[in-house]
Amino acid sequence: MRTWHDLSSLGRGTLRQKAAWEAIQKTHIMEILSVYRPVLAGTIPLDIDVKQSDLDIICESHNLKQFEQAVRTVFGCLHGFEVTHLDIKSIPTCVIQFLTADFWFELFAQPVAVEKQNAYRHMDIEARLLEIGGLNAYQHIRALKQSGIKTEPAFAQYFHIPGDDPYEALLQVELLTEQELRERVQLWQKD
Q: What pTM does this model have?
């Protein structure tokens, strides 16, 4: 599994990735959230983002009220600041959104190690699939996203991944070796 903790490649990436890198640097958000092991997840690190893509930062927090207060103290005065507490599959979750440095930020915290959170796991699987699919996969998935399809359903549709729930279907391929994954993709795309 690839590590997504190092963001330095964004500074050498596409124009949008460079802009994201600058926004992250300007806000010092990773340093501010460092105790929560923040990871930039989602479409921008994968280079499949669309114009409206935000910066999704996942965090590990075992005290979500404390997490909320830490974020509110620094970013609470920013445009669109909003906090939502909810349970996702029985896991307490805090989601905080705000606009700064020309990007919408979405902070997502759970009392779960970031590497075990679904956003991280999906991103890791999606990176593996993009490596197999190559440039054609990048282009088609971006086009599906531009048409309004969410990321995981776009991957399931492009790669013909079976299952009723694309979010769960992606997790089912997580333990496959690279060879097994390549073989499975070939089978799915034949059907």
A: 0.91
